[in-house]
Structures are given as structure tokens and as C-alpha cells.
Amino acid sequence: MHILLPGPTPIPEAVQEALIRAMSDHRGTLFGQVDVKVRTELATLLGAPTKDHIAILPASGTGGLEAACENLLSPGDRALVVETGLFGRRFREVAEAHGVDVECVEIPWGQAFNPQEIAERVRQKPYRAILVTHNETSTGVLNPVEALAQAIGTDPGAPLMIVDSISGVPSIPLTLGPGLDVIIAASQKGFMCPPGLAILALSERARQSVVSDTRPGRFYFDLRPYLSGRLPYTPAIGLWHALHAALGLLRAEGAFARLQRHRMLRDMVRHFARAGGLTLLVEDAVASPTVTALGLPSEMNPGDLRRHLENAGLQIAGGLGLWHERAIRIGHVGHVDRADLAAGLTLMAPHLPHSEQALAAMIPFLKEA
Amino acid sequence: MHILLPGPTPIPEAVQEALIRAMSDHRGTLFGQVDVKVRTELATLLGAPTKDHIAILPASGTGGLEAACENLLSPGDRALVVETGLFGRRFREVAEAHGVDVECVEIPWGQAFNPQEIAERVRQKPYRAILVTHNETSTGVLNPVEALAQAIGTDPGAPLMIVDSISGVPSIPLTLGPGLDVIIAASQKGFMCPPGLAILALSERARQSVVSDTRPGRFYFDLRPYLSGRLPYTPAIGLWHALHAALGLLRAEGAFARLQRHRMLRDMVRHFARAGGLTLLVEDAVASPTVTALGLPSEMNPGDLRRHLENAGLQIAGGLGLWHERAIRIGHVGHVDRADLAAGLTLMAPHLPHSEQALAAMIPFLKEA
User: Fold this and answer.
1) In this model, does residue A368 exceed pLDDT 70?
2) In angstroms, what separates the C-alpha of B164 from chain A's closest C-alpha?
């Protein structure tokens, strides 16, 4: 089965091999060394001060969102959520479930937030935190998170900025820095591993807040032991080994080359789709390098198309939320190259209004870069 | 590396192969079928009425304990915790973290609870729930959970019995039934998979309580979507496939044969250790079939012994809590046969006060059964 999904994504062979590495004592020296290496490498990749600013939790990405809310926000705290799609909505729901006093800026589907407008709003009223989505998986919009961090600045009274980058980093590089305090990621997208790990990177300010917080009421997602490297509960050993292998591949490729690769894949999908008669639901300027949502002509049913493709050996994702009835989503995140993408798009082409034009539009992308 | 640990445990080849099965859309039909098969098979294995009484969470086993407490207990509810070791203590801490009014029966380390005494206590005062450990991993004690369920009976006012069987089922069979409402398990011990999944089986009474509970305050561990098969957040796909393969192996072996195998391994460890000059810290009558804690002579240091063994290619577990300074633990849970155990014990023998006697004591167990 070919998969062009915004996660799960294809697993490189070296990562698969690491995944089935023999089990060992998670309190033993062998595994302890792997854990230190993984957290050290993640700290470098995500711009965290040390390995003890990285927490790896056996959980889905949503568990990472909840851990951030539980550890950095108290009931009654005021937080601003910038909602640019379904996963922004989820972040809001997680915060609300924990009693946070949420104010929400709802951005129309398919658009990115305006960093100056958000920064202005944050200046007008004190917020404990601002929760934003880096790469909105439901719409395929890349939000200008770094620009927002810059606009908010490093005023000591500035809110903590907590970023859901589950479908962003490391395919789309993002690092902690002034105005950007927490990055939440997951194992199954750009990290090229199977799902099962949530990853959190914390700034020194965020880490201090977590480790000095002795409120009761949390247990599994209490980040304090994870941040001290204590591996409080049985870690998902295979996934740690897999992540270790994947981090080696990521380092070898390099952040800029990786981003360029994903941008090229994005552009290839967009040229293919436009030429084939589909609608690009997101403008070029804010189009995600990792996932593309495409509108179908009214006579095409997304469910039917996906069933046909699955029978032909290709899985793509459906539209979500508002776009469920009219859109499909193509993932090009993680371990995907132009040949993988071409294989999938070729299977799609016969179903498009302009099949030949769609295929022809891929040609420039298939020539040596 | 040989491992004789109470988890992680060795992974059979068929399970390893399933683990690296190509990723697929977790909302697609292929994966949906695997999920249905896994939950249906788990329902049979754990005595749950239907697949919709089974929840599989991407988390460590402790996440399963927390999910049970969060979904079945409200702050202020009175619960009785029967604490027979470190993991009983953890169950208590999880309940306390969620504001449950916990009363605790502390059983001395190395002993099992008395079901009649606990049942008597439960009759004297109303409790919302009783939290017990089936197989206490820290001491190697098997608690009489079924006898307790029988003693408490099916009175509609009886408390929910919630059982941590993380190192018990399926190596030690346990099923839901009158007086036994929730079983919590994890992927990495008897289920022969890598760590990363918590498994909960609920009685009809427990399921009704969960699905009719609309309190806010939970998100990732809110069991309602999991019980409806909605896979609310990205599932740990590889582990689902692995569990599917493992369930096939478990079915092929059969529950009784499996229990007999683990009892034989337990007896082999005990004869070996006693003959070799170690102390059995738990009486035969309540000795766990899956993990054995052994006291060392005062001149032997458990940390030194474990380092020597690790250098020789064998990992065993250290003592926990009260027994940290004087004990080791040998795991014989999951995919372990007499040859695996013999390989490990043979590496241990030279370090024991009576090496030859220890080895000789294994001989009867190595003959064809």
C-alpha cells in the first residue's frame, strides 16, 4: 500500500530495524544511554537548552497537548487560542477541559493567522499563555509562528507561547527562542516513526514553571519526572530506538535540505492538482509544505475517490470538519521523496477531470533538481 | 542480550514482523478491521461482553490506571485500595491525585491479601470502588482476586472492583465476572509486545458508568470515544498489528497451557534459587507465576550482581522499594520457555553461594514434560 497521508507516514528501513531491536531493561544502562542520546539530539533539533528540557511521553500527540495544558496552565488562567482549523479547535477543547479561561480567535478555514493582529491583542490584555498551531493538518495551512514570536517579543510579562507542531517539525524546522516557549510534536509524521510518542520541548522559562509547580491532580502527564530523565513509567522502548535511528537520518539530511524537499513536494502536488482540475483550498503564500487539502469538482465524491484509490493501492486522507464533504488531503510529510509522490499521484490522475494535464504538470518536478 | 525481566519481555518473531507492517491510514478500512479484530479477541480473552467493552490507549500501563480512576471515580468518592507492594502504592497515588477519598489496607511486603478480610471490610462501609493488584510486580505475589470477587458477590450496591493486572493477564488468566468490573493490562508483559499500549476491559456495569458520565476535566484518558471504537487520536498502529499477531499466538497456546508453563518456570526459578543459597521472599502458596523476588545473602550486593550479569549478557531486574538493597527479581512472563530461563539461570549460577547445587536443581525441569 502506498500512503500519502499527513501521518502515519512511511517508515525508513533503518528505523524499522531499530524498532524491533531486542527489548531491554528500561532501568538498565543500555536503554538509559539511548534515552540520553535521543533527548540530547531532540534538544539540538528543537532549540531546547538541554536534554532536560525535553519530555518524551508514550502517548498520541493529543496527550502532548494535554500535558502542556495540565502542566503550564491552572484552572482559571486566561489563555488565548488561535484556532485555524480542527486541530486548533482540539487544542482549545483540551484547555477548556482543564478549566482554563479560554478566549479564542477563530480564523476562517484555509487562512493563516496574522501575527501583528494576534500580537496586538496580546498587548491589550494579560494572558498566561497563547496556544497556536504551527502547521494546521486539517487545512494545510502553515501559520507564521516565528513572526508571532518576534512580534510578541521577550517582555518578561509576555504570555507563554505553546505551539502544536505535530505535523510541522522536523519537516518544517521550528525552534524554541524568544517568545516561543513550548513545541509539541509526535513520532509519526516528520519524525518518520510509528505513532505512539508525544514529544515536548520547553524553554527555560517553561521548564522552571513546570518543575516548581507542586499542584496535585495530575499523574501520567505530570512532566516533572520526564524532564529529569527519570522515565517514570515503562517507556515505549521500541519507539525510543526508532526515534534514535530517525534522528540520525534527520541530522544527515539537514534542516534546510529537508524543508526544501517538502516545499518541492508541495509545489509538485499543487501543480498536479491545479492542472488536473482540482481546487487549491489554500493560497500559495501560506500553503503547508507537509499536507495539501484539495477541493474536488461537485460531481466527484471524496469518499468514492478514496475507495477507488485504496483498491488501486493508494491511501490518501479525507477532508476534515468543514471540508469533509468536498475535499481530500495529500500528505507529503516525513520519509517521502518525489518518486513516492509521483507513484501516488499517477494512481490519482485517471480520476481527475484533466488526467493528462495533471500528469504533464509533474514532469518539471521529476527532472534532476 | 538475554532478558529475564518482569517486562519488557522478549518479542516473538511473528509479533516483530507485524510490528513493522507498513503504516496505513488509521481512519481507513484496513486498520479499522485490525482494530475490530484486536478488540474482539481481547474481549474474549478478558471476559468482556463485547469489543465495545475494551479500550486500547497509546500509553504506559500507568496511563491505564489513571484512565480507570478518572473515568470511574469522582473527587470525593470513597475507595478502598489494597496495597501489597509498590504498584498497589502507585494505584493509591493515582486515585489520590484525582481527589478520591482513599482508605488503604496495607499488607506487609511479600504477603497476599486475605479475601475474606477485605470482603468483610467492604461489607461494613459503602465504597464506590475497590482497587486491587492482581500480580504485584514488586514482590512477586499473586493476589486471590477471583476469591475476593466471589466473597464480595453481586450485590447491586457492591463496589466496582478495579484490578491492576499489568503483570498478570494473559500469562495468568483473569476474566471479568460477578464482582470483578475492570481489568487493566499493558502490551509489554504477557501480551509479548513492546511497551506502549494500556488495555482496559470493562464489565457492562462499569461501561454504563463511563459512557453516561459527562463530567468535564478529562481529555486524552476520557474512555468514551475509545469504547465506541472511534480511535479518537492517532493510534500506535504498529503496536495494534503486533497485538493482533500476539493474540493469535495466545489463542493457539491456550490459557491453561500458558498458566501451566508459567507455573513450571516459577517452580524452576524457585528450586534453582533455594538450592543455590538465595532466599525466597514469598511463600510457595502465593508465589507469582510471572515474577520472582529473591533475597541475596548479606555479602552479595544486588547492584554488583546485576552489573556482572549484564556484562555476561543477561539482564534481570533489581529489587524495588523496601527490597531494593537486598533483592533481585527474575521475570518469567510472556514469551519465555524453559530453555530461555535455563540460559539466564546458567549465567547466574557461578555467582551464587552454591553454584553446582543451583544448576543441579534445574535438571528435573529440563526433562520433557
Assistant:
1) no
2) 14
Beta strand B78-83 with A2-4 is unpaired
Q: Which of B220, B239, B307, B309 to mutate to test the interface with A (most CBs of A within 10 A)?
A: B220
Q: Look at residue A48 in the predicted model and tell me its pLDDT.
A: 98
Cβ contacts of B60 on chain A, cutoff 8 Å? 58, 220, 233-236
- CA A56 to CA A44: how far, in whole Å? 15
Quick one: residue A293, left, alpha or beta (phi over 0 = left, psi -120 to 50 = alpha)?
Answer: beta
Which ranges constitute the DSSP H helices of A98-167?
115-124, 145-152
Q: Do A27 and B236 touch (CB under 8 A)?
A: no
The third-level CATH classification (topology) of the domain covering A12-253 is Aspartate Aminotransferase; domain 2 (3.40.640)
Per-residue pLDDT tens over the stretch A78-90? 999 999 999 999 9
Burial of residue B138 (CB within 10 Å: 0-12, 13-18, 19+) is: buried
Of B62, B194, B220, the CB nearest to A63: B220
Model confidence pLDDT, tens digit, residues A13-39: 999 999 988 788 888 888 999 999 999
CA–CA min distance A316, chain B (Å) = 8
Distance CA A115, CA A128 (A): 18
Return the domain boundaries, chain B: 12-253, 255-366
Please tell me whether B329 is known to bind a ligand: yes
ipTM (interface predicted TM) = 0.93
- At A245, phi and psi to the nearest 5? -65, -40
CB–CB of B9 and A26 under 8 A?
Answer: no
Per-residue pLDDT tens for B265-305? 999 999 999 999 999 999 999 999 999 999 999 999 999 99
pLDDT of residue B368: 65
pLDDT the model gives residue A205: 96
CB A284 within 8 A of CB A270: yes
8 Å CB contact of A58 and B63: yes
Q: Which residue of A has its CA nearest to B2?
A: A24
Please state which CATH number belongs to domain B255-366.
3.90.1150.10
Closest residue in chain A to residue B18, using alpha carbons only: A20
pLDDT band at A216 (very low <50, low <70, confident <90, very high): confident
